[in-house]
Amino acid sequence: METFHVYILASHSRTLYVGVTRNLLRRLYEHRSGAIPGFSKRYRAHKLVYFEATTEARAAFAREKQIKGWTRAKKIALIESANARDWFPETGE
């Protein structure tokens, strides 16, 4: 089953870039190496600050479009909510 990732990159100047890909690691390498001309290369948006995964291509593209339509404040709130997750909760040991 194929996985699609919707992701947000940030630059040092705090510019945000929203994209979608089937291979997140490869796409990050392409962004960071400058292999992809356009917005992310021009603004040097290379730092992964958010991502989510789905197995539905239509859902991924719809989510990308949705996030792109949001205000900067709403995108930042999404990033902060993901970064506030407890990725390694205590097991009670």
How would you describe what is shown here?
The chain is of the alpha+beta class. The protein has helices at 24-33, 39-43, 57-68, 72-83; strands at 4-10, 16-21, 47-54. The protein has a three-stranded antiparallel sheet, sandwiched between helices. A hairpin with a 5-residue loop joins strand 1 and strand 2 (16-21). The longest helix has 12 residues, at 57-68. It is globular, with a radius of gyration of 14 Å. It starts with a strand and ends in a 10-residue tail after the last helix. The mean pLDDT is 90.
> What structural category arises from helix and sheet content?
alpha+beta
- Element string (H = helix, E = strand): EEHHEHH
Mean pLDDT: 90
**Which percent range describes the beta-strand content?**
15-25%
Terminal-residue CA separation? 36 Å
Morphology call: globular
Q: Which residues sit in consecutive blocks of at least 5 with pLDDT less than 50? A: none
The Cα radius of gyration reads: 14 Å
Number of helices in the DSSP assignment: 4
**Percent in helix:** 40-55%
How many strand elements?
A: 3
Strand order of the largest sheet: 2-1-3
Largest sheet: 3 strands, antiparallel
Short description:
The chain has 93 residues and is α+β, with helices and mostly antiparallel strands. The chain is 42% helix and 23% strand.
Main features:
4 helices, 93 residues, three-stranded antiparallel beta sheet, alpha+beta, single chain, globular
Detail the topology: elements first, then pairings.
Elements: E1 4-10, E2 16-21, H1 24-33, H2 39-43, E3 47-54, H3 57-68, H4 72-83
Antiparallel strand pairs: 1-2, 1-3
